[in-house]
Amino acid sequence: MNSQDEESAIVSEGVLERSIYEFGTSDVDMFLKSEQHYGVGHCLHQDATFCVGSSQEITNTVLFENLPDSTQQNNVMPVISPVSTSTHPSMVNYPGPYSFDVQLNKLAGDKAKWEHSSKLNKLFVVMDAKIPLWFKVKPVEPGLLVRILPIFLAQDYFAEPVKRCPTHISSLEKSNQDFFYVDHIVRCHHQGVKYEKDPESQRLSVIVPIEPPQPGSDWFTIMCSFMCKNSCILGMNRRSTALIFTLERETGEVIGRKLLNVRICSCPRRDMSKEESDQSKKGIEPEKQIMKIKSCDKKILMKKPTKPLSNELVKLPIPRKFLKPLKEILLLHKHYRDLTEEEKIFLEDINKHLL
């Protein structure tokens, strides 16, 4: 048996030893076109070298459907980290070659449960309300995906993953019934949705395949809901949040990006009005807020006293409780210098009243 036959026999027995396989151009193309490429396909480049431990390991990595129930219940989809879910993902809007854009469908949905502020580029939404998100991709090609990633906007918390609070993650929560990915804030109601957890950054994201729009339209709709509030303690804890929408190929390449601020609250219209009002006040220049005082050209001159000032000593009534402190002050002055005539008279009057 030659070396090639020996290797084939070992593979068939499922005991493949650790080896390094070099994928040529044809091998990579064939792998990317197969059904098993999702999850590791974007890490393989032309003439790349890929190291695996065993045939079973790569099968478990690629085939999410074959994972055991325990892995699914831990909300872990073992994929190699894409750039869009790294510790510091980009937030720059990027239409890209496909004119990628995201809008809210103002004609559909219950507007009492959500509001959108164009001034703030922000969505205000009630928890667990289904929101129609419109996506534009032109032209539509097979293999394109939309990833939705929630992030914290504050620099101090930007690297932290956004997760649900302990209260809403509880098994007693009605929304968690028959649902494994309870950590995720964003939930998409789509048949082909996939929930991912980055093994390095621990960020949670949702992936939805792009669908061709209806005839005569450039947009297709994805229904999404948000499963925790910004005000929840031990969760988002009143921290500002946003969503990063990225258009990606199956290889993980980012070819479009859009940022949308979001606040999950109980009263969207009230919170939107308040934030827009606060933003308007911040936009006013300080000079315009200062009240201008009219200048007065007239000069006011003080009148000269009609009667000349005299040296007459004027006596004022002083409460008795102040006499003793005044006496101590005068005696202190007397210790360091001679008292004036007025001070001597004042001291005598104090002594008389204190007797």
Automatic annotation (TrEMBL):
<keyword id="KW-0805">Transcription regulation</keyword>
<feature type="domain" description="p53 DNA-binding">
    <location>
        <begin position="93"/>
        <end position="278"/>
    </location>
</feature>
<keyword id="KW-0010">Activator</keyword>
<dbReference type="InterPro" id="IPR008967">
    <property type="entry name" value="p53-like_TF_DNA-bd_sf"/>
</dbReference>
<feature type="binding site">
    <location>
        <position position="228"/>
    </location>
    <ligand>
        <name>Zn(2+)</name>
    </ligand>
</feature>
<dbReference type="GO" id="GO:0046872">
    <property type="term" value="F:metal ion binding"/>
</dbReference>
<dbReference type="Pfam" id="PF00870">
    <property type="entry name" value="P53"/>
</dbReference>
<keyword id="KW-0238">DNA-binding</keyword>
<keyword id="KW-0862">Zinc</keyword>
<protein>
    <recommendedName>
        <fullName>p53 DNA-binding domain-containing protein</fullName>
    </recommendedName>
</protein>
<dbReference type="GO" id="GO:0006915">
    <property type="term" value="P:apoptotic process"/>
</dbReference>
<feature type="binding site">
    <location>
        <position position="232"/>
    </location>
    <ligand>
        <name>Zn(2+)</name>
    </ligand>
</feature>
<feature type="cross-link" description="Glycyl lysine isopeptide (Lys-Gly) (interchain with G-Cter in ubiquitin)">
    <location>
        <position position="281"/>
    </location>
</feature>
<keyword id="KW-0053">Apoptosis</keyword>
<keyword id="KW-0804">Transcription</keyword>
<feature type="binding site">
    <location>
        <position position="165"/>
    </location>
    <ligand>
        <name>Zn(2+)</name>
    </ligand>
</feature>
<dbReference type="GO" id="GO:0000981">
    <property type="term" value="F:DNA-binding transcription factor activity, RNA polymerase II-specific"/>
</dbReference>
<feature type="site" description="Interaction with DNA">
    <location>
        <position position="111"/>
    </location>
</feature>
<dbReference type="GO" id="GO:0005634">
    <property type="term" value="C:nucleus"/>
</dbReference>
<keyword id="KW-0539">Nucleus</keyword>
<feature type="binding site">
    <location>
        <position position="168"/>
    </location>
    <ligand>
        <name>Zn(2+)</name>
    </ligand>
</feature>
<keyword id="KW-0479">Metal-binding</keyword>
<dbReference type="InterPro" id="IPR011615">
    <property type="entry name" value="p53_DNA-bd"/>
</dbReference>
<comment type="similarity">
    <text>Belongs to the p53 family.</text>
</comment>
<dbReference type="InterPro" id="IPR002117">
    <property type="entry name" value="p53_tumour_suppressor"/>
</dbReference>
<dbReference type="GO" id="GO:0000978">
    <property type="term" value="F:RNA polymerase II cis-regulatory region sequence-specific DNA binding"/>
</dbReference>
<dbReference type="InterPro" id="IPR012346">
    <property type="entry name" value="p53/RUNT-type_TF_DNA-bd_sf"/>
</dbReference>
